[in-house]
Specification:
6-stranded mixed sheet; 12 strands; about 35% helix; globular
Length: about 250
């Protein structure tokens, strides 16, 4: 029997008293890949930020359990140490902080095992090589002056170095050309195993051609309105969101 990794129970969230999430319930078991699809503004990214503890999002009611423990009182850095990772739709630049220093310091801080500087350096070099990231990038400030595709590659590098138990990826495919999408998606898919889980937030079925999900959920107006297998994503790609809105009697 699979062990529950993330369990969201009847979650209601607001921003400045405006309801954003309206009773979200979702369960990810260890080793599963779930895709969350929906229009812009439907609340997908709000769910991702809430899971990682962004202070702007106020949880009005509901529970978020990670490995059976309620994490609502945990700070974002504590959730990261517990094994949660958020990949941003638009990764931000951090001037003055080199990519290499950030990766080494963060990975060692979050790891439960003792890792020598030499071992960490080799891990970073090996993972960067898989993604085709030049060594020169390691000394540059995080995301400063990088293209959209390069930023996504650097974020995927973080994912591979940190090796979280749960990766929540918010529109990783946004702004990528065909080659970059293939490289990044295949690199993420290589990390799948019996313990690690993925929550993929996306608009399009194209990402799911490379990372095939176990389950697909359609998100509209702050709620999950339908769940199914990967053929649900193909139906959505073919018929659009109006199809599901009419079927469920909800507005996007």
């Amino acid at each position: 029997m699979k062990k529950k990794l993330l369990e969201i129970k009847n979650l209601f969230v607001s921003i400045e008293d405006k309801p954003i999430l309206k009773g979200v319930s979702l369960c990810l078991n260890e080793g599963e890949v779930h895709a969350l699809m929906g229009r812009n503004g439907s609340g997908k990214s709000s769910l991702a930020y809430t899971l990682l503890g962004h202070p702007r999002y106020r949880v009005d009611s509901g529970v978020i359990l990670f490995e059976g423990k309620n994490i609502l009182e945990l700070a974002p850095e504590e959730r990261a140490k517990a094994g949660m990772f958020l990949g941003f739709q638009y990764p931000v630049a951090i001037p003055g902080v080199s990519l290499a220093n950030f990766l080494r310091t963060s990975a060692r801080a979050m790891s439960a095992e003792s890792i020598s500087a030499k071992e960490m350096r080799k891990r970073i070099e090996d993972e960067a090589k898989i993604l085709g990231i030049p060594k020169a990038f390691m000394t540059r400030s995080i995301n400063e002056g990088f293209s959209g595709g390069e930023k996504k590659k650097l974020e995927t590098l973080q994912l591979r170095v940190f090796k979280p138990k749960l990766a929540i990826l918010d529109e990783t495919d946004s702004g990528l050309d065909i080659d970059a999408l293939r490289t990044i998606a295949q690199s993420i898919d290589q990390m799948r195993d019996a313990k690690r889980s993925l929550l993929l937030i996306t608009h399009y079925q194209r990402l799911l051609n490379y990372i095939r999900p176990d389950f697909v959920h359609i998100f509209l107006n702050g709620q999950i309105v339908q769940s199914g297998k990967e053929d649900l994503a193909r139906d959505l790609e073919e018929k659009g969101y109006e199809w599901i809105e009419q079927a469920k009697g909800v507005a996007g």
